[in-house]
Amino acid sequence: MMSRLMLSAVLLAVTSSVYSAEGEYDGIPLGPLAGMQYELCQLNPGKTLDDADRQTNRAAAAFDNVGLDLGIITFTPLYDHADVNNKTADYITMVYGTIPAFGEGWDKWENSEEAAEVMRGRDEVGTCHFKFNHIDYRYMDVPALDATDRRVIQTEWCSRRPGISKAELDAQHKSWLASTGNETNYIGWAIIHPRLGQSNAPGEFFHFFIYDSIGSLMQDEEWIANGGGMDGVEDYYSNYVECSGPSVWSGSLAQTP
Predict the structure, then answer these.
(1) What domain count does the chain have?
(2) How far apart are alpha carbons 61 and 63 in whole angstroms?
(3) Consecutive H or E run containing 223
(4) Is 136 left (phi over 0), alpha (psi -120 to 50) or beta?
(5) DSSP-based three-state secondary structure for 74
(6) CA nearest to 250, candidates 49, 71, 96
(7) What residue numbers bound the domain in which 226 lies?
(8) Is the pTM here over 0.85, yes or no?
(9) pLDDT digits (tens, 9 = 90+) for 192-214
(10) What is the pLDDT of residue 181?
(11) Of 61, 112, 162, 209, which residue has the fewest beta carbons closer than 10 angstroms?
(12) Rounded mean pLDDT of the chain?
């Protein structure tokens, strides 16, 4: 099922104004909702992840040549939900930027012969499905994000438990943000709200946490396992949301806005 191909993560948080979602990242204002488009892809017969990586680099070059104010990255599964009975996506290509940049970008893209060649190559490498979402940036350590192209993401689809309002859940997120101090090691956190092409989305939203390495991810796993972090995780799951379970994907930025 396509819903099993989705991203997933555990909710963590940090405090301090230097880590708040204020200002800009890659030219994207962090206050308003922004845009994220991702493609869930299965490799076509005879194609490899190297082919997918080359295709992403071609798309990145075309973004630059056509003049798109959008970033692009391809993720491959690290800790996914696949087993003998369930498939996962072979790769996920994500594009991000402001929502107006998506509108302008698609108009330019549809009138570019170079873009048309990229799309033909896309269809040769994999079978993909576009999904468009709104990004609610909650925390971005911009200097840390700018220091590396490496991205390890941990995500999780969630829905509110019956009786929990959006305001109550938002207050819980802010409370945890203020209470966990400097215990965690991720360098970005956003809440992603599904919009277009998402009638089969497995939840109301998903958490999107960014790490600069697997080592940083494992530091947070150590905090959850042995540093007291599990209490907050269990409280979140028991009282506020029902979630699909965390998964982790790995990639490197091919192009920034």
Answers:
(1) 1
(2) 5
(3) helix 214-226
(4) beta
(5) strand
(6) 49
(7) 2-255
(8) yes
(9) 999 999 999 999 999 999 999 99
(10) 58
(11) 162
(12) 89
The H or E element that residue 196 is part of is strand 188-196
Return d(Cα 120, Cα 125) in angstroms, integer.
9
d(CA 219, CA 146): 21
Span 52-105, pLDDT tens digits: 999 999 999 999 999 999 999 999 999 988 887 788 899 999 999 999 999 999
CB 87 within 8 A of CB 5: yes
> 253 phi and psi, to 5 degrees?
-60, 135
pLDDT tens for residues 112-140? 999 999 999 999 999 999 999 999 999 89
Nearest to 35 by CA among 62, 74, 71: 71
72: enclosing H helix or E strand: strand 71-79
Query: For the domain that residue 161 is a member of, what is the CATH number?
Result: 3.30.70.100
Size (the chain), residues: 257
